[in-house]
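Researcher: Here's a chain I'd like modeled. Treat it as a single chain, no partners, no ligands.
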Amino acid sequence: MSETAEKLMDLAEERMREAGYHGFSFRELAAKIGIKSASVHHHFPTKADMAAAVARRYLERFLENVAPQPGESGEDVIAVYRSAFRRSIEHDGGMCLSGMLGAESGGLPVEVAEEIENFFRKAVEDLAQRLGGSEERAFAVLATLEGALILARAYGEVAAFDHAAAALTDNDAPPLMPLALLNRKPHAAEKLRA
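Model: Modeled as a single isolated chain. Structure tokens:
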């Protein structure tokens, strides 16, 4: 893939993690990197093609970040997943791409919705296998982490993620900020982006 295509995908991913599928346009992406809108179509014929490519790349990167380690315990697996999700909100205040688009799946083009479903199927399959075959536990872990991101974004504080995810495992959990302090924060979206 060309350097321009990668830059376009990076920008599209950033916007989708912030505002969903409808949160970007080819014109906006082209302007940000100094090319004509028609040039974007050279790399990605449609917005759906681009979003599907971004979602596939996101899955590949995610699975690399949570890859199995020799001798890992179930607690280790959950901690690795929790850390991967926490990094996303901690880094730039953005949501998990698949969680953000999953909330919109009823209104997404088929090829994008299929990629999002694939993310969740692969993550549940990976978690279940590494947690001793418990698909129910895998669903619970994934749902908790996605929900924790939503709460962190709503509160504008990574600490809200920690509170929501604390029940998953106590190992390596950062100290929790008292919830009363979370309730007194300024506008949530601005706090995370700062």
